[in-house]
Amino acid sequence: MCAETAGLATSVNFKLLFNECYCQNTSSGVFKLNDEIRGLFPALSKLNYLNSAAVSPLPVTAVEAVHSQLKDVAENGSTNYPNWVATKNRVRDQIGGMLNVKAENIAFMRNTSDGFASVALGIDWSPHDNIVSFAKEFPANYYAWRRVRDKFGVELRLCPERDGKIDIDEFISLIDSDTKLVTISAVQFSSGFRADLERIGAAARAVDALFAVDIIQALGTTRFDLPAQYVDIASGASHKWLCAPEGCGILYVSDRALERVEPVMVGWISVESPWDFDDREQGFRHGALAWESGTGAASLFYGLEQSLKLLIDSGPERIENHLEQLTDMLCESVSTDTFRIVSSRAKGEKSQIVSLEPIGQMSANEIFRDLEAKNTIVSSRSGLLRISPHFYNNREDIERLVDALG
Fold first, then answer.
1. 183 in Cβ contact with 132 (< 8 Å)
2. pTM strictly above 0.90
3. What is the CATH number of domain 3-57+315-405?
4. Residue 91 in contact with residue 244, Cβ under 8 Å?
């Protein structure tokens, strides 16, 4: 079988299915997910899974697509290689659409860290430059900039956390005429705080700085318009909210950033005509495509394509609204005698991640292990219990969690 014709992955009309699976209660505005959508995720048959901020379970459509490509290679070798490339390019188009950017400005890396590291080493730094970021960024959006600080003598300015939040005024106050790059996560991994990207991006653009965003905790649940948000660089990956196999990193480099950042990790497919092995002086590919140095795991892109199709057809706005309702329900239901809600629930700041600080004698790690023993999967991060539902979760999942928390 040719991998281009993956069985179930190409036979399900996800858009129609999701439209049928959601029914609106006009009196309450609450959406209910049908079992057909949940049935695409086998993990949900045995687990109350609320941990997509760590790793999302895979839908069967993605798994079958990965298997189909591997089976194709087993049976046909390289015969269908053009199909592998075509699949990767379709995924590039999908990601471009989700971010509202040109596909040629999307490069595929191994992970989020690779994206930021390749950008950090491709900028011409001077000792008088500074970088502005947040003190509690996930390490993927820290170590690359720390390396720049140590190697080039650049100042790294870190805005502190204020009671689970980022004071955007305080953050912007760190930006000045010597700021070369501003970087932050769209959604914070620990607190779930959602940054006002457009406001921060406008402040960065006002001093002609580049604006880099870690999108891994938002892509798949949050609508983006990177040009309107003044984002020059964005890095993320496939295994969280995109419900796809681990190993597909995503790097966006805007036209503006391409004028200032050199690709430093280049290889044989970075050039315009990679199959012309005799022309060793040919130019590099246009846009961000030069950042792709060699071949990758083709089968993973088959899985990513099907997961993205499911998310896109389900409707980004509908997913975002559904998750807001679930997390609002959680915060309204959890006992304030035993937990403090750390995550901001203010409009524009709340996200699909809710972090709770235990007030009683049990630590977050102990509660995490107790929930795991009850087949309820969440995370423990920095002394907080982190709950992260996705579009396949429903109100019953939240009720089960609240009951398990006691």
1. yes
2. yes
3. 3.90.1150.10
4. no
